[in-house]
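Notebook entry, cofactor series.
This is the third protein in the set we're modelling with a bound small molecule. For this one the ligand is adenosine-5'-diphosphate. I'm keeping the input format identical across the series so the outputs can be compared line by line later. Sequence and SMILES below, as received.
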Amino acid sequence: MSVRVPAKVNLQLSVGPIRDDGYHDLVNVFHAVSLFDEVTAAVGTASGGTGPEVAVEAAPGARVAVGGVPVDGDNLAVRAALIVADRLGADPRVTLRIRKAIPVAGGMAGGSADAAAALVACARLWDDPDEPRLCRDDLMEMGALLGSDVPFAVLGGTAIGVGRGERLTPALTRGTFHWVFATADGGLSTPAVYAECDRIREADGEPAGRPEVSEELMTALATGDAKALGAALANDLEPAALSLRPSLDRTIEAGRDYGAIGAVVSGSGPTCAFLADDAEHAAELAAGLDGAGVARSVVRATGPVPGATIC
Ligand SMILES: C[C@@](CO)(OP(=O)(O)O)[C@H](O)COP(=O)(O)OP(=O)(O)OC[C@H]1O[C@@H](n2ccc(N)nc2=O)[C@H](O)[C@@H]1O
Ligand SMILES: Nc1ncnc2c1ncn2[C@@H]1O[C@H](COP(=O)(O)OP(=O)(O)O)[C@@H](O)[C@H]1O
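Returned structure with ligand:
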């Protein structure tokens, strides 16, 4: 059972004040792009242990450093498999193989994507095909137990996330947008970036306001206006990511110099996202960024694309 699952970029990430539970209230506009991890689930394990086993590798041709991905019970895909087994009363001995093209700790929700893929794969493996007990909404609910970004990786497309980002409403979009992503050496820790955002706000004496959906962004999406979308991209975590990784400033500038119509750090970073007018412009932009030597790798993708899908 193989499932393909997309990365995300945040078109708008508005971060409200920190809550009592340590999370921040968000308006998080997710957009799924055509950079995919693949998770394969097969019944049984080689070691004969009591739970899931996992192996992780870079997808063919992908320059992803998989060293930081846990291959034990901390792997989000393993935790996802255990949740599905528990819900369906299934034998949790399953072998998961993850092929990663999504950068690790890159702000593109690769771990969440793998969790979503494992939820979909294990549900298909263990659920009753004639009378399934789990629907997509159930899997999204189970995903929220694993992380704020997991429900979106199940859903895909473009969606507005509120709460900690897990409560989703699909957004109306028209056409296809063309993106170029500049990945970085080494990741950034999501909790550390949120903490840096709080620290900067406190130091500047600028408390967080209530996050609100950008009307400019929604109109740009609904009309398929790439230039307006580029102008509306906004990420409250960007100053924090730049503070923790000052070299990203040069990456963003290089993208602008090569004609990107929008440039933003993706989520908690350090991947930078650049919007192009069309496929041809994206190819030129990618070549320019590659030559500038400001990224570990430069990848093109389009969005929106569907969420976790059985291959
Ligand atoms: C920043 C975003 C933007 O989409 O993603 P990444 O860029 O890391 O992929 C998300 O908010 C990350 O979501 P996810 O990676 O699922 O985080 P979780 O496991 O739920 O939380 C990890 C930690 O991030 C912080 N966190 C997360 C979500 C949120 N609304 N407020 C927070 O403060 C908390 O410190 C939390 O302990
Ligand atoms: N299947 C997985 N793939 C990647 N990272 C994972 C996975 N499971 C757990 N992790 C952990 O989650 C952390 C964040 O990873 P990731 O989701 O790739 O980044 P981000 O939150 O920046 O989008 C990693 O550093 C790793 O320790």
